[in-house]
Design brief:
The complex is a heterodimer of chains A (135) and B (331). Chain A is built from 5 helices and 5 strands, in the order βαβαβαβαβα. Chain A is α/β, with parallel strands linked by helices. In chain A, strands 2-1-3-4-5 form a 5-stranded parallel sheet, sandwiched between helices. In chain A, strand 1, helix 1 and strand 2 form a beta-alpha-beta unit. In chain A, helix 1 packs across helix 5 and helix 2 packs parallel to helix 3. The radius of gyration of chain A is 14 Å and the shape is globular. Chain A starts with 6 loop residues before the first strand and ends with a helix. Chain B has 3 domains: 39 residues; 230 residues, Rossmann fold; 62 residues. The longest helix of chain B has 43 residues. Classes of the chains: A alpha/beta (135), B alpha/beta (331). Chains A and B meet through helix 1, strand 2 and helix 2 of A and helix 2, strand 3 and strand 4 of B.
Chain lengths: 135, 331
Amino acid sequence: MTEQKIRVLIAKPGLDGHDRGAKVVARALRDAGMEVIYTGLRQTPEMIAEAALQEDVKVIGLSILSGAHLALVPRVMDLLRANGQKDVQVFVGGIIPEEDVPVLKQAGVHAVYGPGTPTSKIIEDVRASAAAVAA
Amino acid sequence: MSLDEALLAGDRLALSRFLTQVENGNPEARPVLDRLYRYTGRAHRIGITGAPGTGKSSLVNRLVLTLRANTQKRVAVIAVDPSSPFSGGAILGDRVRMRDLAGDTGVFIRSMASRGALGGLAITTAQLAQVFDAVGYDVILIETVGAGQSEVDIARLAHTTLVVEAPGFGDDIQAIKAGIMEIADILVINKADLPGVENTERALRSNLEMGYSIQANRKAGHQEEFLIPGAADSTVWVPPILKTIATREDGAGQVWEKIEEHYAFLKRSGRLNEIEKERVQKELFDLTTARLMKHWQEIAGKYKMETALQRVLDREISPEQAVDWLTDTGK
């Protein structure tokens, strides 16, 4: 009865209300056999970290189109670490300027996906990440 | 600190990770689960079921908020959503409605996918409830979509089952599923500010009156089924019909009152022990079935299965004959 489903948290931190991208990714991950905990809009970093803890997810996808990524993402990373979840892999999608990508990576983000990233790539990466965390 | 100690001391990360092990059927979780079992039996398990769109998650949100505002009781919420039978994946979206509970360390929300549990509740849902019970959560709310077998399963797992309806979701007697009257301990009409709420209430009430009277008679030992209007019998619980607007405070306090009343009734009437017995009976049956199935699959092996399949497809043998051979139970 051992099933290793991949549980992924998809959240939109901050006040950004454009959730189509997040929903598209959520559906794609579901169709790829994963269990997606979709927490919706207007999540604070605290709410995201709390959900990650309670749901024991291996991967978190953050969708940010508001430009607030440099304020919000490092805060999420700090909270994850504080909660003992430093191994959770965080992906960021949305509108992220090129020059901010290294900053996010430095903060511990695993990958940043711009608009037009094929969902197949995201699925592949999430699978690889989940396998790495499980090991 | 051992895992057992960490769990019993309230370590939330340890709990969360252990829940995953239990859900995945990890053999390493078994001994811990076995040791924790003696600590179970204290929590009040409440099931919440109903058609999609009736506002179950919002109601859970409101109920927990109200409870936490008035008491120190620790609450666990297990929110179950269906897995896709095709991809095996799932969208677990119940947390979206429970944002008001964020930041309260006395509340633990865990989303679960049904993982194709043949239309019913997975055995693992009951096991997760056991873990929450063992580590000291006072109230466990289990929310599922009422579809197929899962309604019956949740009624067996929970002490008190709430069935949530909403105006416009099948007001006619014909549209209201027969099973609901048999599993509901409390009927909640949510979204009570929508038009048609009186029709919904009327339909539920008349359905209830018919079903309840027949049941009351059966329980009292009568052989014939006939209607007795409103028998106030302390050995029979009459499901109240309540109205709520979960997005506001309306009605939540009343729901808790009825939940408490029901629990008191179960204790007073001796039903609590009866339903516990029925629940454990079912759990043993489900676990045995799963265990035997797994064992059989290991013994039968892929080759034997494929051979049997081909022989049936070629019409050399009938399906029953194939199973005689596969299970070694032929005469």
